[in-house]
Design brief:
CATH architecture: 2-Layer Sandwich
Number of helices: 6
Radius of gyration: 15 Å
Strand order of the largest sheet: 1-3-2-5-4
Shape: globular
Order of helices and strands: EHEEHEHEHHH
CATH superfamily: Peptide methionine sulphoxide reductase MsrA
Number of strands: 5
Structural class: alpha+beta
Helix content: 25-40%
Number of domains: 1
């Protein structure tokens, strides 16, 4: 069983963390800030540890694109960079090719870029597993819950049962 790591940035790292925690094959999600080889500044992001024999890099990137605004250069892009942070040259090349291939699924141009992973700073402990610890908070209900419902509708075969029990009952 091969375990790989990859970083993703897009929206709030609380949202990104919750999404990847729900996927089969993801064994750990670290939430915090990532810097890239190509740029010194840190951006909100997560590091996803996954079993590549259960969930592919392509599926992870596809989920990432559909769960944040990957086609808009909005005013918060300085904080919320749409990115894939790779850990080696092969992963970098594969990620760039996957983005090119998935572009056909979107009407607008993807702003998501591939960067070399440089450094990671973990969020403070009270913010780790934010959605799982705070599903009833207004932020979670407003922003994370709808993304998890969309994840369940679009990627049902990739979603774990337990973290989404609340969202399933809401849809019934």
């Amino acid at each position: 069983m091969r375990i790989e790591k990859i970083g993703f940035g897009g929206g709030c790292h609380w949202c990104t963390e919750a999404i990847f925690q729900c996927l089969h094959g993801v064994i750990k999600v670290q939430q915090g800030w990532i810097s890239a080889v190509e740029a010194e500044e840190f951006h909100e992001a997560v590091v996803v540890h996954f079993k590549s024999d259960i969930i592919s890099l392509e599926k992870l990137i596809e989920v990432h694109l559909y769960t944040h605004n990957c086609t808009a250069n909005h005013s918060m892009r300085d904080k919320y960079r749409s990115a894939v942070y790779t850990h080696n040259k092969m992963q970098h090349r594969d990620s760039a090719n996957i983005l090119k291939q998935l572009q056909k699924d979107f009407d607008n141009k993807l702003v998501t870029r591939v960067f070399g992973f440089k450094e990671f700073k973990m969020s403070p402990e009270p913010y780790q597993n934010y959605y799982l610890q705070n599903p009833d908070k207004p932020f979670c209900k407003t922003y994370i819950h709808p993304k998890l419902q969309m994840l369940l509708r679009r990627f049902p075969k990739n979603v774990k049962e337990s973290p989404l029990a609340a969202t399933k009952t809401d849809e019934a």
